[in-house]
Specification:
The chain is of the alpha/beta class and about 260 residues long. The chain has one domain: P-loop containing nucleotide triphosphate hydrolases (Rossmann fold, 3-Layer(aba) Sandwich). The chain is globular and about 60 Å long.
Length: about 260
């Protein structure tokens, strides 16, 4: 195959949902949200997203899908890519990077690699980039999730964060904090890297865009469609004992240096 495919990588609770809403609502973009070869259950199945959200499949596609339960993840992405292309649309994959760099509770161990890029790179030319968030803010948000709370410690989280930061520094990244300060400029950069045509009408559409995973619009967090403007969130600070763990952690120090954070 001589296909080009676009992939956006971001860790959980790093602003990836909001950024994906902005990109996903742009003209002629087909967004598959938080897809990963190791998890194809429920809404995380790319075929289900393509069928339910984007109405990409013909009757013969649906017959094949429903009668060939062993269709591989690569075959699924190829089919979605072809149908997107035929519809004159650009396929954008939002990687479920949490699986590779944090893992719990969906898989036992992180791979510490961009699995999706590695797998698809065998068949596609990859255009990919990353978005990141300050590790302290990300940790506080992540550890407040009931499904994650108590299942990972700071040291393990920061080990995965550093490995992602190293890849982001090599691949290219946008910081969530910079995005909230100047969404238009950040999205223009992301679109250029992802080979997407920038569409400024996202400004009037992103808050109503629902074809995305991870939306917390009903929580009042500032990430979801309850708000119609992109909010600059105040920095969070953990309690003194947690802050001490961050300050003495080598992965933390390496990460913030790589990503240009002061502290």
């Amino acid at each position: 195959m001589n296909y080009k495919i676009s992939i956006l990588h971001n860790m959980a609770r790093s602003g990836g949902t909001l950024i994906s809403k902005c990109l996903g609502c742009m003209e002629n973009v087909v967004l598959l949200s938080e897809v990963h070869p190791r998890v194809m259950d429920g809404i995380f199945n790319p075929l289900k997203q393509a069928e339910q959200w984007h109405k990409l499949f013909r009757k013969d596609d649906l017959w094949h899908i429903h009668n060939q339960p062993d269709i591989s993840w690569i075959q699924a992405i190829e089919l979605i890519y072809r149908r997107s292309l035929q519809a004159g649309k650009h396929l954008l994959l939002r990687d479920w990077s949490h699986i590779d760099f944090t893992a719990v509770p969906w898989v036992d161990k992180p791979s510490y690699t961009l699995t999706i890029a590695s797998e698809l790179g065998k068949y596609f030319h990859i255009n990919n980039t990353c978005t990141v968030r300050h590790p302290i803010d990300q940790w506080i948000s992540l550890s407040n999730l009931s499904i994650i709370s108590g299942k990972i410690d700071i040291s393990t989280f920061l080990n995965g964060y550093r490995k992602f930061a190293e890849i982001a520094a090599e691949t290219g990244f946008i910081r969530y904090e910079d995005f909230t300060q100047n969404p238009d400029q950040s999205l223009k950069v992301l679109c250029e890297r992802l080979n997407i045509i920038y569409d400024k009408t996202y400004q009037q559409k992103w808050f109503d865009f629902t074809h995305v995973t991870g939306d917390t619009s009903n929580t009042g967090s500032g990430r979801g469609s309850k708000h119609k403007e992109i909010i600059v969130l105040k920095r969070r600070m953990p309690d003194a004992s947690t802050l001490k763990l961050f300050k003495k952690n080598k992965d933390f120090k390496t990460s913030i240096k790589l990503l240009g954070y002061d502290f």
